[in-house]
Amino acid sequence: MNLSTLPEPIAAYFAAEHSPEALAHCFTPQAVLKDDGHTYTGVDAIKVFIAEASARYSATSVPFDIEREDGLQLVRATVTGNFPGSPIVLSYRFRLERGLIASLEITA
Fold first, then answer.
1. Which of 24, 26, 31, 91 is 20 to 30 Å apart from 42, CA to CA?
2. What predicted TM-score, i.e. pTM, was given to this entire model?
3. Which domain holds residue 93?
4. Residues 6 or more apart in contact with residue 108 via CB below 8 angstroms
5. 44 CB contacts (<8 Å, ≥6 apart)?
6. Cis peptide before 87 (omega within 30 of 0)
7. Domain CATH number, residue 64
């Protein structure tokens, strides 16, 4: 799947996955990100989480499927990095609002 086939804020999210500053521009100011049993609210909290996760896991995500599900954009991606079970397929549930990501839930 080519990133150009994804909605712009989602494509920007995957394109900038190792740049917390660039990723922060993909989210609304009050966005909520849920991952690995934790919830991060607001761009600053999301930026800190992304920076720590990027440094710890050096993960790379390759989206391969997208579908609409209950008003959300569900993207499935193969994620490879420095973590047990790599590579793994993760689901990313994006809720978009005014051209930005308002919420994102990442699950296995």
1. 91
2. 0.94
3. 3-107
4. 88, 89, 90, 91
5. none
6. yes
7. 3.10.450.50
Strand order in the sheet with 60-69: 38-41, 27-35, 100-107, 88-97, 72-80, 60-69
Residue 1 clears pLDDT 90, i.e. is over it: no
Average pLDDT over every residue of 80-97: 97
Q: What is the pLDDT of residues 53-70, one digit of tens each?
A: 999 999 999 999 999 999
Q: Which residues contact 83 (CB under 8 A, 6 or more apart)?
A: 57, 59
> Distance between CA 61 and CA 50 in Å, rounded?
13
Report the alpha-carbon distance of residue 83 to residue 76 in Å, rounded: 18
Q: Into how many domains does the chain fold? A: 1
Tokens matching residue 6: 């994804």
